[in-house]
Specification:
Layout: H1 8-19, E1 23-27, H2 31-44, E2 48-52, H3 54-59, H4 63-73, E3 78-85, H5 88-97, E4 102-105, H6 112-128, E5 132-136, H7 160-168, E6 173-175, H8 197-207, E7 212-215, H9 223-231, E8 236-239, H10 241-254, H11 260-282
Parallel strand pairs: 1-2, 1-8, 2-3, 3-4, 4-5, 5-6, 6-7, 7-8
InterPro entries: Aldolase_TIM (IPR013785), Class_II_FBP_aldolase (IPR050246), FBA_II (IPR000771)
Enzyme class: lyase
GO biological process, one term: glycolytic process
């Protein structure tokens, strides 16, 4: 089943594809981070995809509604995406009860056949509610704070056959495995040659506009790697630590020195400034 009608996430990504820039899909774990991300988008006149993990939906049940309110009230294009939804029952609860624009149906911890079958069924159910679907082809190794760790599972590069099978399953956004990992690469970022941009280029050529490409595993990316990924077809750029590490460092350094209100205010400014910097790098500034 093909998604019909307007969808905020896909409109943002389609505009970025036409404009040859990348859009950050930024994780928020709390209201302070959400606020800082939205402020950056407004200041930079940049589109932005707000991402929440399923664990955050359980931990802070009202955060999705706060994010949805921000999406509706913003003067720039925003959307709400649920990242790495890995439980079928929870996915069905999310799409039935929350005002989300897109969901990553992450069945990559299953074998290929079961991954594809579950993805196809859930994609149809999401599309019936006007919700776009992202899926991971192959398997991206590692783990992040908020998603199941796949470190014990072998990383599987996305093959041309994977691409066709996932498109046939009805997805709208493809997250390929091209050497990227969930989690940290180290201070220097990915090792030379670790990210297989030739594979990304081939995937982009193969999909020929049928779906959009999401790049996961951007922790520790230097600007030149991010720009190269955009140049080779990545349009949805999942970011977590890349933006939020400055918040963690600021809070650790200043929690014992500042009153709480000041700590929150200054911490949000730090995230906002880092987000604005990366919007410039990704080319989305001024595109709203």
């Amino acid at each position: 089943m093909v998604l019909t009608g307007k969808n905020r996430t896909l409109e943002i990504l389609d505009a970025a594809t036409k404009g040859n820039y990348g859009v950050m899909a930024a994780i928020a774990y709390n209201i302070e981070q959400l606020t800082a991300l939205v402020r950056a988008a407004e200041v930079k006149r940049s589109p932005l995809i707000i991402q929440l993990f399923p664990s955050t939906l359980k931990q802070l049940p009202t955060l999705a509604h706060a994010a949805a309110a921000a999406v509706k009230s913003a003067s720039v294009p925003l959307s709400l995406h649920i990242d790495h939804a890995q439980n079928v029952d929870h996915i069905r609860e999310i799409i039935a009860t929350l005002p989300v624009d897109s969901v990553m149906v992450d069945m990559s911890h299953y074998d290929e056949a079961e991954n594809l079958e579950k993805t196809k069924i859930l994609a149809k159910e999401c599309h019936e509610k006007g919700i776009a679907v992202e899926a991971e082809s192959g398997r991206i190794e590692g783990g992040e704070d908020g998603i199941a760790n796949t470190e014990g599972l072998e990383a599987l590069f996305t093959s041309p056959e994977d691409v066709d099978k996932f498109i046939a399953a009805g997805i709208d956004i493809l997250a390929p495995s091209i050497g990227n990992v969930h989690g940290d690469y180290g201070p220097a970022g990915p090792a030379p040659g670790q990210i297989h941009f030739d594979k990304l280029t081939a995937i982009n050529k193969q999909i020929d506009g049928r779906v959009r490409i999401a790049l996961h595993g951007t922790n520790d990316f230097p600007p030149e790697i991010m720009k190269q990924a955009i140049d080779n077809g990545a349009v949805k750029l999942n970011v977590n630590k890349l933006l939020l590490e400055v918040w963690n460092e600021f809070v650790q350094k200043n929690a014992s020195k500042m009153m709480l209100v000041q700590l929150i205010d200054e911490g949000m400014k730090v995230i906002q400034e880092e987000t604005e910097r990366w919007m410039d790098i990704c080319g989305s500034s001024g595109k709203a």
